[in-house]
Design brief:
The protein is of the alpha/beta class and about 220 residues long. The chain has five helices and nine strands, in the order ββαβββαβαββαβα. Helix 2 packs across helix 3. The longest helix has 26 residues, at about 75-100. The radius of gyration is 16 Å and the shape is globular. The mean pLDDT is about 95.
């Protein structure tokens, strides 16, 4: 994954970066789509740098644009778990490199994921030490909900899902919240009425407030 595949927004006015927010896009999308969250949140986090990497793999058919963190065919929990585990080391390395570049550490890191990117956020953020400041998962699944013995439990987690999501079933919010709570993680979960598989203004407001609180 090269620097050219990472979209970024630096702190305004040449400020030194004091936080790093990593934005992980969904299946078939790219970092350029999700970096818009950084533009929206830069007002509440003026000292944050936002980066949105493109996932490392192209989609399997040449006629399709966009990227994937891992291949999806069956779209079942086993495939999500296996794929996220395999893709995690490259993403962990990218986050390590970005933190080093800005002179930051995990305590100044937040990871935000949408859909497949949410699965990657769960898989990586909860296994980083020391604990990152925040994890935000939008419209996604928690990989391996019965295999959480190796996670750290100090990172607060925001989970947001729409009750009209027909891509990733809304029940996955309930399942993730229950599994993480049993493991000792502090979870703030929101099921939004009428929201489909997307990010709307309500999600952006919840996310911005959560990040501001986590970095306060």
């Amino acid at each position: 994954m090269t620097a050219s595949t990472v979209h970024r927004i630096e702190p305004a006015g040449g400020r030194k970066a004091r936080q790093l927010v990593v934005l992980l896009h969904g299946y078939g999308s790219c970092g350029a789509d999700l970096i818009a969250l950084g533009r929206a949140w830069s007002g509440v986090l003026p000292d944050a740098v936002f980066i949105a990497p493109d996932a490392p793999e192209p989609l399997p058919h040449e006629s399709l644009v966009g990227r994937q963190w891992f291949a999806l065919s069956e779209r079942d929990m086993r495939e999500i778990e296996t794929g996220a585990e395999a893709a995690a080391p490259k993403l962990q390395a990218l986050m390590d490199t970005a933190l080093k570049h800005y002179g930051l550490d995990n305590r100044q890191l937040a990871v935000v994921g949408f859909s497949q990117g949410a699965a990657m956020a769960f898989q990586t953020t909860l296994r980083r030490h020391p604990a990152p400041a925040a994890l935000l998962a939008f419209s996604g699944m928690l990989p391996g909900p019965s295999k959480l013995d190796d996670i750290q439990t100090d990172t607060p987690v925001l989970i947001v899902h729409g009750d009209a999501d027909d891509v990733v079933a809304p029940d996955f919010l309930t399942a993730a919240e229950a599994a993480l709570t049993r493991a000792g993680v502090t979870v703030d979960a929101h099921m939004l009425t009428g929201l489909d598989h997307s990010i709307d203004e309500r999600v952006m407001v919840l996310g911005g407030r959560f990040l501001a609180s986590a970095f306060a």
